[in-house]
Amino acid sequence: MEHRQLHAAIADPAAWKSRHLAAFGSASAEVTAVNQLWEMDSTTAAVMLADGRHTVIGVIDVHSRRAGLLVSKTSRATAIACLLRRALLEWGVPEQVRTDNGPDYVSRHVRRALAGLGIEHRTCTPGAPWEKPHIERLFRTFSHDLAELLPGYTGHDVAERRAIDGRARGRKRRDTPLTAAELQAFCDRWTDAIYHHTPHDGLNGRTPAQAAEAAPVQRITDERALDVLLAEAPGDGVRTVTKQGIRVDGLAYIHAGLALHIGAPVRCLYDPHDAGRVVVFGTDPMAFICVAECPEVTGVSRREIAIAARRKQVQAIQSARRALRAAARKEGTRAIVREILDHRTAQALQSGNTPAPATPHDSAGIRAATEAARAHVAPAASHDGSDGFPATPPEFPPDQRGRYHLWHALDRRARAGGTLSDRERTFWQHHPGSAEFQAEEHLHRAFGLPVPAPERPSG
């Protein structure tokens, strides 16, 4: 039939792409190292959950084929950032991330986070999803594997979905639909226990676990600094400091440190754990300035902050005037300008990072976020697995199972009348509501693993 490929492309674009789109050579030939390139995408879950249809967001390291999946109600920037956080901590930092041009992937939130981490963001040509074939293949493998056996499976396409509906019509539903936490637990178990240990043709028969084994990577050494960079921002995040502070969402945020930046643009990030605070950075270069607070929300005394700001501003101006007068007596204007520029350059090069034995990942954003994290302002975030980040202080276990067992240890201590620190108490109170805690509970019971029993208080 003449023009049969054109007819196939119009009638069924997905089938045409699968059967006729040229695929000469290797799509990963240019990728020669672990974490050189990640691909990310989102797909509608082929399983109807207890609270409706959800989305599965995926990430894959092209060289090793190591993969991660996150279940979210919809594909949105906060969920993408959550999956990024998980992969960054487990795998290290990639050089590039390739996505499509969807509004969630080219959002200010995602672009700002990648830029702050020093990661190049590559987008596909509009209408060319085959430019990220590895994540597309991952979704296809996942949906055709054990996912077909899950309760609420809806099929891969319209025809299969109709056939499933036809078989189900007239008979009573026997299976209880999964929750989002249960599907997330299944995704984690599938990637970690099955996919990562299955030989791949594209890896010459090796498994993703073998391909990633002992590969040199750059790692985030400060988890709290990462949380700062991945936090949301109001709009584009840029605000101009006025004599009244910074206006965010109709509220005024103030801090003594802002006195030295009146009239200058700054970049703001929300602290999702405290509506009364925003983390403030310089825009060029990105440097931590302060954590500004809204007195109406936090209850901090506006008068105390105003007095401290005025005192700091006067001291800075007086000190600068004394330095300029002393320098003018010694040298001419050109030398003064050179001294000022040298001072600014030194400030721009200052780093808040401490040396780590591994190869630490470094960027201007990481340095600024590290300084913010050390000011004890790192976002503890919401406890929805797709809307934020787990509230885990740096000394807490970095892995999901470790945090699960830590919670039980804290629970035993609290029930026995022991004391908890503020961070431990916050974690103990909120962690049971997180998706990862519920997933661990489900896994422990489903696979017969011993669940740490809380001790009963004496007396």
Gross morphology: globular
Count helical runs: 16
DSSP strand count: 11
SSE sequence, one letter per element? HHEEEHEHEHHHHHEEEEEEHHHHHHH
CATH topology of the largest domain: Nucleotidyltransferase, domain 5
End-to-end distance:
86 Å
The residue ranges in which pLDDT falls below 50 over 5 or more consecutive positions are 167-172, 347-357, 378-394, 454-459
What is the helix content?
40-55%
The computed structural class is: alpha+beta
CATH class of the largest domain: Alpha Beta
Largest sheet: 5 strands, mixed
Percent of residues in β-strands:
5-15%
Mean pLDDT: 77
- CATH architectural designation of the largest domain: 2-Layer Sandwich
CATH-defined superfamily of the largest domain? Ribonuclease H-like superfamily/Ribonuclease H
- Tally of separate domains: 3
What does the radius of gyration come to? 26 Å
Widest sheet: strand order?
3-2-1-4-5
Summarize the structure.
The chain has helices at 4-11, 13-20, 77-91, 108-116, 133-144, 158-168, 180-194, 208-212, 223-230, 295-298, 302-330, 333-349, 364-374, 400-415, 422-430, 435-446; strands at residues 37-49, 52-61, 67-72, 96-99, 120-123, 238-240, 246-248, 251-253, 265-270, 277-282, 288-293.
Keywords summarizing the entry:
459 residues; alpha+beta; Nucleotidyltransferase, domain 5; 16 helices; disordered C terminus
